[in-house]
Amino acid sequence: MTDLSTLVKKLPKAELHVHIEGTLEPELLIKLAQKNKIDIPYKSVSEIKQAYQFRNLEAFLELYYQATNVLVDQTDFYHLTIAYFERIAQDNVRHVELFFDPQAHVSRGVHFSEVIEGILQGMEEARARFNITSKLILCFLRHLSEESAFDMLKMALPYRNYITAVGLDSAEKDHPPKNFERVFTQARLEGFLTVVHAGEEGPADYVRQAIELLKARRIDHGVRCAEDPELVKKLIELKIPLTVCPISNIKLKVFSKITDHNIRALYDSGLLVTINSDDPAFFGGYINDNFMELVDHLRFQAPEIIQLCKNSFMASFLDSGSKEEYLKLIDDTVKELMAEQPA
Ligand code: HPA
Ligand code: ZN
Prior knowledge:
Elements: H1 4-10, E1 13-19, H2 26-36, H3 45-51, H4 57-68, H5 74-89, E2 93-100, H6 103-106, H7 112-130, E3 133-141, H8 146-156, E4 165-169, H9 181-189, E5 193-198, H10 204-212, E6 218-221, H11 229-237, E7 242-244, H12 246-251, H13 263-268, E8 273-275, H14 280-283, H15 287-297, H16 302-314, H17 320-340
Parallel strand pairs: 1-2, 2-3, 3-4, 4-5, 5-6, 6-7, 7-8
Helix pairs in contact: 1-15, 5-7, 16-17
Hypoxanthine (HPA) binds next to helix 4.
C-alpha cells in the first residue's frame, strides 16, 4: 500500500461541514476590503494570520463576522465560492454540502438574492470545471431571535429548490436548540432537511435536543455526545452522523491538543463520523490537513482513512445511486493505488 499522505490525497471524499464565509482567505479579504472600501483592522496578510488565534468559539465568531463585512455584492460571493472549489479540487473533494449564514449579510443591507445567486454561480461553475457536485445548507444564527430565523426562512422560500437543508450555527453556549423548535418544524413542513451544530462547546443535552426536537439528520461537531453513553447509543441506532472538524476543535480550544481529541473514541464506538474543515481560512487547514492530523497524531491507518472517506458519502444528502457510485470509486481508487505500489 502506498503511503498514507498519498492515500489521503488521492481518495475521493465529500465535505459536509464547511461554512463558505469561513473559506475567505486573507488575500481575498484584503482585496475585497479595498474594492468595497470597507475598513478592516489589518494592513497585511501576515497581520491577519497573526490575529487568527482564538480563545474560544465566541472570540472566533467576532473576527469571522467582522471579515464577512467585506462581502457586499453578488460577484464577491461568487469569487469567494469559486476560490474555495479551486482549492479543494486539489484535495480530491468530489461533493460538498456548503453552509452559508445569510442573516450575517442581510443584516448589513445585502440582498439575499445577491448572496445566494453568487454562491450558486460558483457551485455551478465548480460542477462544470472540476466535476465537484454540491448542495446548499442555510444556517440560522442561534445568537439571534426565533423571529429573525422565521424572517430568514420566508426570504429563502423562493429559492427552496436550491437549498437542501437548514442548519443552526453561531454561539452555542446559552443558545439551546429548543429555542428554534418552531422554526425548524416550519422548515421541515416546507420540505427542508435539518442539521444542527451541537455538542461543540455546548453540553450533550443540546445534541439530544437537536435530534428529538429539531429532528436533525446530522449533528455538526457533536463531540460532547461522548459525555452521555445513552445518547451515543441512540446516535448509533439512528445512524445519525457527526461531522467532526479536528483542527477547528483545537483552534477553538474544544480540546487543548490534537492528542486529546476524542475522534478515535467516537470512531471506535461505531458512530458514523466524518472529517471536515469548518472554517479552513481561519483555522489554517483544509480537509486533507484534517485527515493528516488523524494520521500523524492519532494512529489512523489506511483502512480507517478509507472508511472515513466512505462515511463522508454515506452521511451526505446524495441519492442512494450516487452514494453507491462514489463508494465504488473509492474501492477502485484503492485498487489502483495498490497495483501501483505492491506491498
Ligand atoms: N461553530 C458555530 N458556528 C460557526 C462555526 C462553528 O464552528 N463556524 C462558523 N460559524
Ligand atoms: Zn461549523
